[in-house]
Amino acid sequence: MHKFPYRWTLKDARFTKDKGKVFSCFACGGGSTMGYKLAGFDVIGCNEIDPRMNKVYVANHHPRFNYLAPIQEFKLRKDLPAELYNLDILDGSPPCSSFSTVGAREEGWGKKKKFREGQAEQVLDTLFFDFIDLAKELQPKVVIAENVEGLLIGEAMDYVRRIYAEFDAAGYHVQHWLLEASKMGVPQMRPRVFFLCLRKDISEPFMYQKDMFERKPYINMDFNEKEIPIGDFADFKGKELTGEILRLWKDKRPGEYDLRYAAERLKGKQSFFGHKLLYLHRVCNTITAGCDLHYYDKPLGLSESEIRCIATFPQDYDFLEEKAEYICGMSVPPVMMAQVASRVYEQWLSKIPE
Fold first, then answer.
1. Residue 222 belongs to some domain of the structure
2. Is the pTM of this model over 0.85?
3. In the chain, helix, strand, coil percent, each to 5?
4. Residues 124 and 234 in one domain
């Protein structure tokens, strides 16, 4: 039995909005927003730099406060409504491609980049600190930040140490967890890092001695829900494979989980690492913006309904002119965020006196 359904609809969902107020930064299409709503929170607004993603967000979520602007500008505004200074949770998923385990990593740190939609260039690896600046200004009870597991690898740990230092200076106790979505009722393997930060002036009732040198607010973030294999919801209505991908797919071998070895056999070198092969008895691989996922037993990609299930997006979510796999690949799975938000409410927010 799962705490939250992975197949659901907006029209049938009951959002109680009685657990507290949330504002979401780097909101994209609203994956985290839907998670907070499923957990009973009232998401009162968002900040997003991309006009196309913001258009999708507004169409589905109708935010009370909507700010289409770079966070570097948004954090400096002095005309924000009083409600933003009385938040239960400030949420954010700073763009994280600089630290992904797939990509240039260190070679790209400190360099300006932009996504394909054409918004302004930004140094992506400093956006986290702009987000912390906003937290320092708004002083919500809790800050939740989500990012890629690559933050915890190699030299990127120096970046994590700086995140801890900046949150400490902003007035927060901070801890991080590497969580696996497939253990949280999400039908995909998606490891993500979550930073949970509790404001120091309200943290004393939750403090425990973490080790000889450090006290931290206690919260249990262990999850072990039953995994959901793709065979539970496969409809085989995706596009048929064609061209070079089909040729590689036909050369696959039992037990292979991507097309790299077929590429080595047919092309003389390993490539096509991102083209994963899906087995019906296994949990789906991570959905990415490109969604290069193909069934092992059938020469098919994923259908839109399957993508929605894998990402735990509502079946009636309106992607407007955007591709479902792009928005789902860029977003926090709603059920994953709902699990985190529920723990934060149950163990922290519900126990803080008014």
1. yes
2. yes
3. 35, 20, 45
4. no
